[in-house]
Amino acid sequence: MKKIFVLWFIVLSAQTFAQLGKLDSGGKLSPYQACYDVKFYDISIRIDPAEKAIAGSVIMRAEAVKDFNKILVDLDTTFQIESVQMLTKDKKGIDLKFTHEGGKIWIDFSNTIKRGEIFSTKIDYAGIPRIPKRPPWDEGMVWSKTKDGKDWVTVTCQGGGADVWWPCKDHPSDRADSVSLHFNVPSDLICIGSGKLKSTVNNNNGTKTWNWYVSTPINNYCVMFYLGPYKAIDYDYTSITGEKFPFTIWVLPDSFEKAKEHAPQFLLHMKVQEQLIGPYPFRADKYSVVEAPHLGMEHQTAIGYGYGWKNHPQFAFDWLHHHEFSHEWWANLVACKDWSEFWIAEGLGTYMQPLYLEVVFGKDEYFRYMRSIKRFANKQPVAPRGEKSSGEVYGNDIYYKGAWIVHTLRYYLGDETFFRVLRRWAYPTEEMEKIKDGRQCRFTTTDELLDIAEKISGKKLDWFFEVYLRHSSLPILNVKKDGNKVELSWETENNLPFPMPVDVSIAGKTVRAEMKNGKDVIDLPEGSDFTVDPKDWVLKSVKQ
462 with 474: CB under 8 angstroms? Predict the structure, then answer.
């Protein structure tokens, strides 16, 4: 293997690496990918930290959703493809013609694959993955070292796509129903993967193979491994369903004592989250947190964590773990079919932190956290219409503004209705909360969330979603004092209707301006002061 990697390194010159551009993911789905639906990936990879290289094969089983004789698969240009084959029912390989240019593998079939037909391809490849400058925001293989010089390796690929390290259909609209993972690694290291550990095999050549299996649908970018001299901290955890599932923290040896003292709060994170929005979705596999050589990422059942086993500098909890772990519901259970919907993952994932603080520490901490994330760019809609790539939508607004939109919706609906809506956004029915075989996982859209919220609340909410999510500008609240009256009016982009009520505090009492036509007038007692929206519930800018 080493000779293959060295030769490949020579072929792939330093100039080629220097010309690598930033990867993107998603966008308009090619008809050569829309024609098939991935059911299963079987990924076998040898990881060589000494050469900073990988080699392996990926079997993709898929169903044709229309007739075709050519498909498109994604794989970064840093790799060389050794062969592409179609596998017969008896698993014999038939060589297929292919080209690999610009990160795209074009595969030609000798016969037309008919709609409804199940087919399997196998791609053998090798190469030196790109190295990210700023993981996890940049994509690539992270070749790191522990303090005592041991190899510590993982990969980050959310924004650029999983094709940075294995060939796949790189589009958020298609998740495999299940995935098998086989990692051949140095035998002195531990390799943590997505899903459940099925077996390990000592190869008697200085390497060991770790076999993992993901039993539920998974986003490509969440398929993951972590390689290092890990030690396990195991906990007993019982879900609100009454089921027990593995709950493990994997740490480097020099972090063990610090992590052991810090990590018990993760059990409380899980308990509160289950109470708020339903059971942990992946009880059939596991929950684990793995110390990573980057800040963190929501890798399904194996959360990447690099925050140093510490709390938020201003709040008494580990916000980083809580945010990434929240994505097990908002991103992994409830996935986005297009990157234009990614505010659902990041906005709701961010909103869970102040909710946790409210449950554990009280409402004042909730409001204090909301104020701490009141930072918006307002340069593009949080949920733009149309197909978008990851690079087109990524920014702070899908986090902070997304969370503030949910915060404002809570005010408008009231707590009793809002928390029913929030739970049904995660699990549309009580029956789905009991399922753990993969059928609980689904794609969602902004429009589906609107529909669920309207059905539960009995209110029309299209105006709310249109102004806050489909347009970039904040609604402006005009406030004018005229004698003993306060005149309030909303001003919106394109004069969109916006009957958003707002509280007004007058002499220590709070009244609600209903703003049914976007306007209202509040009477003031003689000499009284007033404050509009004293609790800061409504996302807006104010003009006085």
Answer: no
Angle in degrees, 0-180, between the axes of helices 462-469 and 446-457, rounded to the nearest 10: 150
C-alpha–C-alpha distance, residues 321 and 304, integer Å: 9
> Buried b vs exposed e over 52-63: b needs ≥16 C-beta within 10 Å?
ebbbbbbbbbbe
**And the tokens for 162?**
């999983």
DSSP 8-state symbol, 176: B
Say what the pLDDT of residue 302 is.
99
Specify the pLDDT at position 10: 38
Q: What is the DSSP string of 46-86?
A: EEETTTTEEEEEEEEEEEESS-EEEEEEE--TTEEEEEEEE
Q: What is the pLDDT of residues 257-278, one digit of tens each?
A: 999 999 999 999 999 999 999 9
The neighbour count for residue 9, using CB atoms within 10 Å, is 16
Q: Is residue 343 in some structural domain?
A: no
Round to whole Å and give the CA distance between 289 and 296.
10
Residue 48 CB: number of other CB atoms within 10 A? 21
Residue 537 is assigned to a structural domain of this protein: yes
What CATH number does the domain containing 521 carry? 2.60.40.1910
- The DSSP symbol for 150 reads -
The C-alpha R_g of the chain, in whole angstroms, comes to 25
pLDDT of the residue at 468: 99
Residue 208 and residue 224 in contact, taking contact as beta carbons nearer than 8 Å: no
Element (H, E) at 41: strand 36-48
Each residue of 17-45: pLDDT tens digit?
545 666 889 999 999 999 999 999 999 99
User: Which residues, 6+ apart, have CB-to-CB distance to 490 below 8 Å?
Assistant: 475, 476, 477, 478, 498, 500, 515, 518, 519
H or E segment to which residue 349 belongs = helix 343-361
pLDDT digits (tens, 9 = 90+) for 360-392: 999 999 999 999 999 999 999 999 999 999 999
Q: Is the pLDDT assigned to residue 8 strictly greater than 80?
A: no
* Interval 307-361: pLDDT, tens: 999 999 999 999 999 999 999 999 999 999 999 999 999 999 999 999 999 999 9
Q: For residue 512, with 0-12 CB atoms within 10 Å meaning exposed, 13-18 middle and 19 or more buried, which class applies?
A: exposed
Contact 475, 540 (CB under 8 A): yes
Asked, for residue 252, whether it belongs to a domain, the answer is no
> What is the separation of C-alpha 268 from the centre of its chain, rounded to a whole number of angstroms?
21
- What's at 107, amino acid-wise? I
Domain count, the chain: 1
Q: Is residue 538 part of a domain?
A: yes
- CA dist 186 and 205 (Å) reads 9
Output the CA torsion sign for 159, 162, 167, 171. negative
pLDDT at residue 21, rounded to an integer: 66
- The predicted pLDDT at position 19 comes to 52
Q: What's the average model confidence in pLDDT over 435-461?
A: 98
Residue 518's domain spans which residues?
476-543
Q: Identity (one letter) of the amino acid at 515?
A: M
The half-sphere exposure of 490 on its side-chain side, counting CA atoms within 13 A, is 27
Nearest-5° Cα angle at 172, 168 to 174: 65
